[in-house]
Structures
1.
Amino acid sequence: MDFTPHTDADVHAMLTRLGLAEPNDLFAHLPAEVRVSGDLGLPEPLSELELMRHIDDLGARNTPGLICFAGGGIYDHYLPPVVRALTLRPEFVTSYTPYQAEVSQGVLQALFEYQSMIAAITGLPVANASLYDGASAGLEAVNLAVGHTGRKGVWISRGLHPHTREIITTFARARELQIVEHPMVGGRTAWAPDAGPEPAAVVFSQPNHLGVIEDYDAAVTLAHGAGALAIAEVDPMLLGIIRSPGAAGCDIAFAEGQPLGNPMSFGGPVLGLFTTTMELLRRLPGRLVGQTFDREGRPAYTLTLRTREQDIRREKASSNICTNQTLNAIAAAVHLAWLGPNGLVEVGRQSMQKARYLAHRVTEIRGVKLAVEAPFGREFPLLLPLDPDDAVAAMADRGFLAGVPLSGDYPELPGGLLVAVTEKRTRHQLDSYAEALEKVVSDA
Amino acid sequence: MPEPGGRATASPLMGGSAEPTLRDLSSPGRQAWSFPPLDVPDGDIEIPELAPGPPALPEVAERDLVAHYTRLAHRNFAVDLGAYPLGSCTMKYNPKVCDWAAEHPAFRNLHPSQPAHTTQGALEVLMEAEEILCRLTGMARATFQPPAGAAGELTGLLIMCAYHRSRGRKPGTILIPDSAHGTNPASVTLAGYSVAQLPSDERGMVDLDALRTAVDDDVAGLMLTNPNTLGLFEEDIVEMARIVHEVDGLVYYDGANLNAILGVARPGDMGFDIVHSNLHKTFATPHGGGGPGAGPVAVVDRLVEFLPGPLPVRDGDRLRWEMPASTIGRVHGNHGNFLVVLRALAYMRALGGPGLRRVAERSVLNARYLESLVSEAYEIPYPAPCMHEFVASAAALKRQTGVRAMDVAKALLDRGIHAPTVYFPLVVEEALMVEPTETESLETVEAIAEALLAIAGEAAVDPEHVQRAPHNTPVSRPDDALAARQPVLTWDMERGGGR
């Protein structure tokens, strides 16, 4: 099956006009040594029905119906059908980046509204139109800080998501940045004010990767005292409950935006939220939509401050980003507008209360305790009396995705399991989880 | 006026009046959300850093939301509405069966941290897509972590860096032709390299002598798009790769234009070492108004150890994750834009080997046919046979009538056809870069040509009308200078000083 509309007669007529005999002649000017002569071993074409059966077969090889208690940035929240219904409009799905503003007002206005709502929940004045994911947004934040301060030191909390730390490290190796990791004590970052090279940035997560709520002032005061930017990663679904990074004085906030409007999708496509201050506006990575007027004085939206971008500035651009995650950003905007101020508070409140209930239930199990005794959001670290990977496997047999093992990224927590709860979990599911975990622990 | 069958020129029914923002539509107390009542004990949430109150979000009913976004959709052009010959962007038709695949509940609801034994189907998707991609590009293995082309470029450059470091070298320069996409030099800077630009020769291809002169021990590699951004196949590619390899440099293939050579020629056979492809171009995943895309990076055998990880590997009849031996580390928080990969796999499997080759044949056929029609009114500065796209110039038109490439682009919008890419590549004055793609019919290709010729004709008699185009779109040309001078980037921002 293919999707080209040409009939044989069309192809013949077109080749004839071009003075060619057959399609192969279109490539006659390519050097013979690079032209494919043999069979590439590619699969045979499939009809739609055969294709759908094949995808179904592949899907059937995933374990179905696991009740999700895994988090670490990607969460199983309730997604109202209206999000998909609107986001899947083909005008949004099948358009390119809105460079031709006159025929792209829909996407542009949707992004302007997305920027407005992301700025509102983070308490910072400017948001870009999305980045790839939370981790790469963290990298872009560091990149901005390095450019802004001209320094090469980056102070990072060990409580920052391990994958974000890894991406920053991947990049730092090529750029010869000096990463200084600040340890956690009792579940919170213990900042060392006299650490290594002068920092461009002080980067932390609120709540941190263990789910624990950090002390904003400690990080922000440290950063500003050292002449660095204070950069916070946040959980968007908790911004109705936890103080915003803008209110706390941060210079940049970023987040994994998946919980807003997007299914877990095996981790992609998701989106990175990125917000900052007016002072840093001209260094903002990624696309930005502004409101202006057309020739008739009607309100119009357009991509703006484009002199930051790669297609104009080339090697002097603030970032190399071209394709971003627009459709995911539209989904996030629809979801945020569906929630409104009180719905966002309700999601956070329910998730946190259910997390507290589950934490209470599972710590009644003999040998199971919280890894740290500190106030948490909707996620908490357990210490199990068995290898957490084994526990996750055994829980999967009982129908639960029990959490994310911490022992690989945090060897100091050998039995560590990060458990996340959303508003979607019912009390029955929480009780069943606790009962299943009790069996798994006692069987071990 | 209805057009004859097969023509995609009917003006879309796009809304002509301004759409209020969600904040304008907001009314205190209105609500769309609902959740079940809390079924666990409630009480005060005692945490430090408590928010003082709810954030300032709009309050709307679901009905308001649906009407708002549907009206916004009406104010947006898209491939599903009509021809989109936007050069370099490969705005081909996105098959609906691939959308179906990406919406499959067996994949949509997977968590990225699930143990591999519960996600065998997803790992199989990655393996299958990787195998097809490697066969098409002539590479050994690929990573799907890079979520876009530019991210693929950065990944490729970090691999180059790791390769040279492993050999105890630290060359600092990347060679890039002057016709390259802007992402190339931006990625090079981000990776900590400096850019050395290679001039094009009179054919519109890399000047081989300039390359020979530029290559020395400080050259880490060459980044090249082939066919290049003029739509021309770099005929000296084998020799170019040999020259770069002589100083142990690596040759990077920017896959932006891979569509033109699918199943016809392979970057691996041309001497490339690292290849990124844009699934949102070549493999028909939709552009989503600017994303999500996917920019997988494939490499030759000797670079596999440096790939980002983890990668899926076969272990008997199971698949598991494994970090490559000398990996550069992660470049995405999870496994890349997985659902985009699933869509692309559906497309590749639907087409199979013969269909994928037909993509190249018909995209080149459409472009060359369109070029031959358009050349009646527009100059083709580099006349070598084009591949899947061509670059025409409105320089003569501008001299004769004052109508510029941008005006031509805007006038096309009035005719229900999306604009081509303009003012790129930089080596062509008043460039119009046109890529019809293989999914437009002969009739549509002819309609694009007729529109371009009609605009040239109109420019001769009423240039001002063309210069003021578009006339029947939801808005006319926005005041970009005002937008940049006094930025209004959220609905809370006031424009300083007024208009």
2.
Amino acid sequence: MNPVAYTGRAALSILAEIGAISIFALRGAFAWVSGPFYTREFITAAQRIGFNSLPVVGLTAIFTGAALALNIYDGSARFNAETFLPQILAVSIVRELGPGFAALMVAGRSSSGMAAELGAMRVSDQIDAMSTLAVDPFKYLISPRILATTIMLPFIVLVADIIGILGGWLVAVYALDFEGATYIRNIDAFLTTEDVTSGLVKAGVFGFLISVMGCYYGYKSRGGAQGVGGATRSAVVASAVAILASNYIMTSLFVDF
Amino acid sequence: MTEQPLKISIRGLKKSFGAKEVLSGVDLDLEEGKSLVIIGGSGTGKSVLLKCVLGLITPDNGEIAIDGVNILKLSPFERARKTRQIGMLFQGAALFDSLKVWENVAFRLIYGEGKAHGPSRNAAMDRLAQVGLPPEVGDLSPNELSGGMQKRVALARAIAADPDMLFFDEPTTGLDPITADVINRLIVDRVKAVGATAISITHDMVSARKIADEIAMIHQGRIVWRGPASEIGASGNPYVDQFVNGRAEGPIKMSLKNT
């Protein structure tokens, strides 16, 4: 094929996809406004996404914090700044790594889960069946998942922040001879509210993106088991890209205040 | 033929998927309270036709009138209100596997109409009894049931809100002959009981003869024959003859590629 035509076609299809996802996201986010709001679905989704993600997010956070402590110590020792380890570690975690890693883990867990579940429902006609039973699938399936993920992710990130800082503390105190109370006191004196809240705002946006991708690719999936597999893969890849791209955009906005 | 008002009236319905034209101008009328069976080979657009009427697929061209109102001209909200009178039995039953059997049957009552759980559960149990299932089945999960039982539950779910119209997509496909007969009888019985107008699509001729008042044959996206169920054996139409008698030779050439 003509390479120019190929490039053009690919660009157009990407733009069309972004447009379709945006419309889907708006519809999904606001479908519940005109009622009914399916509370039970919302609570189930919140529990699955929020509570059940905690073990894997906690593990990720503790190892990230621990490794980060070693790296910061090693790097900052080159210009005798190793005493700032707690502050640098805390800022890195609450602003960047806590939200980022937690979101990527939840994307791997929940975005794929939503895509697979909705995809299986789609290919077995369950979504069409729902429409014929006078229930809007956007209200019953999509809105509760988007709302639950958007609301729960900041809480997950808050837990990840705490565990990540704890991971750094363990390494600092037991391997690098820091004094435990001073480590905490230094972070407490240094960290601002904005450091934490900016990370939590990011988390909310990541949660929205993760659930939109999971729901979109699941809802649109076609063609049996292979289609559902493809939907799951697309959901995870798209979530990860959306998280990292939006992270840069939000960071560049936040560092200006 | 009669003075009965037309429940469904379809004119010039067209739908293509990519380059493949699935419906190429379907005209179809159905009087209130009648049961029509549409026969035709796989991939001839039978399911697409039903999904167009249900509002699940938007056709490219043509009109679909329910009770004299062209639903394609209505706003999505109004159209949904109109198509809500239709109960649908999907080919694979399409039961919600995350819910119990009784919750499936009561789904529309609880989630669509906001009724309380207690009375909805009782109503669901009544519907299950009407399709010959004992109350114990209500607390099972759909994947614990056999194919025939799932079809029965799906039928109970489709009739739970007393719809004006009932659509059946290959209700007996994949069932043994005895279970198929049970389902056929239940369909006839329930359609009469709720007084619904019914459209069924099938390629099971035994089933078609049992549940139809009239039979229509669809081929290459058009209705090629229509007549009373009793005349299907002597239609004089070469397409119908080939299909009814199940012959490989004839005017219908089976394409190997699916739609």
